[in-house]
Amino acid sequence: MISVIRITEAGSPDVMKVITGEKTDPAAGQVWLEQEAIGVNYLDVTQRNGAVRIPLPSGLGLEGAGRVAAVGEGVDNVKVGQRVAYATGPIGAYASARLFPAERLVPLPDNVSCEDAAAVLFKGITAQYLLKSTFQVAQGATVLLYGVAGGVGQIMAPWAKALGATVIGVVSKPASVPIAKNAGCDHVIVFNPTTLADEVAKVTDGRKVDVVYDPVGRISFEASLNSLRPRGLLVSFGASSGAPGPVELSTLNAKGSLFLTRPSIVAHTSTAAEYQQRAKDVLSALAAGTISAHIWRTYALADAVTAHSDLENGKSAGAIILTP
């Protein structure tokens, strides 16, 4: 028997229920994966509470790691007994075991644990495409990064530093300043939308930044635009304060011919080849010590309700994983 988290309606963490299921033989192109660790991401919360709609009833979770227990016909990229990880779905990671498409599995290096892989891969792929595709961070770049104390920020800050950037971190409270400093930020600013741009100008001697990575959304949007140098890029990739409002194109012109983009992980992992390339880059960076897992807390799969409550209420200070 296996344990699976299911939801039949959107709502509070209590809508998640543990049910039992049976092992299923993998079809062609599939594997049966016995999971050892499951990553918890804020996207899981928004899918559960209805902010991001998914067909119901449904499982939850897009990231996990474990061992291949059986393979279907035509599978030759992984073998039985191999340790593997995945991110970006298909949805249903909150389970002790599951079917999964073999082409979306990534073999784990010997020095990367299942726990670390499950804590890093989804967030790491986000960091990877933001730093290497959305804007190619390189030696001499200056970046402004919100949420440095969070899961994605803890990966992006040291990776951007390794690529040669000056990193200005933005945190929500003074208590998070040491966390941001430890992640490698050159400067740390406690967020205030009315003063942020002036503080950025001060620490850059008036030059401001090449790129802003903004997962906050509505309340930070104007401050982010005002923190950019002429022809700088605002990367709006989240909406923790609500989605940003419409922007007049003339505003971008008036503020210095700025660029604006709203990227998604789906558009950057749409093919198996691109997904594999990004995932392997993340695991290589993890194995090399460029980035770290920063696991804040591990919960049993049966305690997913508590894990979601802690994440949603801002209690976490790093990655959360579930273990079957």
UniProtKB/TrEMBL annotation:
The keyword Transmembrane helix does not apply. Keywords: NADP, Oxidoreductase. The keyword DNA damage does not apply. It comes from the Bacteria. One of its GO terms (cellular component) is cytosol. Residues 11-322 form the Enoyl reductase (ER) domain. One of its GO terms (molecular function) is quinone reductase (NADPH) activity. SMART domains: PKS_ER (SM00829). InterPro entries: ADH-like_C, ADH-like_N, ER, GroES-like_sf, NAD(P)-bd_dom_sf, QOR-like. It holds the Pfam family ADH_zinc_N. This is Zinc-binding dehydrogenase.
